[in-house]
Design brief:
Layout (H helix, E strand, L loop, with lengths): L1 H14 L22 E12 L5 E7 L4 E5 L5 H7 L5 E10 L5 E10 L2 E4 L12 E14 L5 E6 L3 E4 L2 H6 L9 E8 L13 E10 L2 E4 L2
Length: 218
């Protein structure tokens, strides 16, 4: 009986040994199907900004529907200087579904008054050095994105404290409007070509102190 157990144990030991697995080959990039561009004409009715108040699109009212048109933020300065609310414009692009399941129109070019702006790559610029900062401010509100996720704290003196959503959810009970927060973080610098609808200072939070307790948030 002991010999049997010993054999079985030896077999299990051999079977349970860990052998090096060959590396998993990289997956080929997903190939897009060939798509034809769609032309949309209508009136620019409203600008679209992201959580940092950077321009990233506009609403186009056609004869049939109101379409959210998206463009890269690095085109914001060029587009907002040429287009104005109320302009009759023509947009070429692709119809897509956003990660949130919303129908959007990705702009490839837009024309107004005989002038066309194309979706071109961002200009190369020297690396931006993020500036470290500390502060103590009052909480004005909790900022949420279009999907309803908490993405930051709006503070007094036109500041936004950017905190990862999964960490901010854990602090929800302590970040009520009117409360006081101390923080350290890095100031988010705008890139070449970006334009803002409202001049908030955006700080990527590294540490935060609430009610005498400090947390790491980077």
């Amino acid at each position: 009986m002991k010999k049997f157990v010993s054999i079985i144990a030896g077999f299990v030991f051999i079977a349970g040994r860990t052998f090096a697995q060959p590396p998993v080959p990289p997956q080929p990039p997903v190939q897009r199907e060939l798509q034809s561009m769609i032309a949309q004409e209508g009136t620019l009715t409203e600008w679209i900004t992201n959580e940092d108040y950077l321009y990233e699109g506009f609403y186009l009212q056609t004869s049939q529907e109101k379409i959210p048109v998206k463009f890269p933020p690095h085109l914001g300065s060029q587009i907002t200087s040429q287009l104005k609310v109320g302009n009759k414009i023509r947009v070429n692009g692709l119809s897509e579904i956003s990660p949130a399941g919303i129908k959007e129109f990705r702009m490839m070019d837009v024309s107004v008054n005989g002038h066309t702006i194309y979706d071109t790559p961002p200009q190369m610029a020297a690396p931006v050095v993020e500036k470290f900062t500390t502060g103590k401010e009052n909480i004005v509100s909790v900022q949420k994105n279009r999907e309803g996720d908490m993405v930051g704290l709006v503070l007094s003196h036109k500041m936004i404290l950017r905190i990862p959503p999964h960490l901010l959810r854990q602090l929800a009970a302590s970040v009520q409007p009117g409360g006081v927060v101390e923080f350290t973080g890095l100031i988010n610098n705008r890139q070449v070509g970006e334009a803002v609808a409202d001049a908030y200072m955006v700080v990527h939070c590294q540490t935060i102190t609430l009610n005498g307790t400090s947390y790491i948030t980077r």
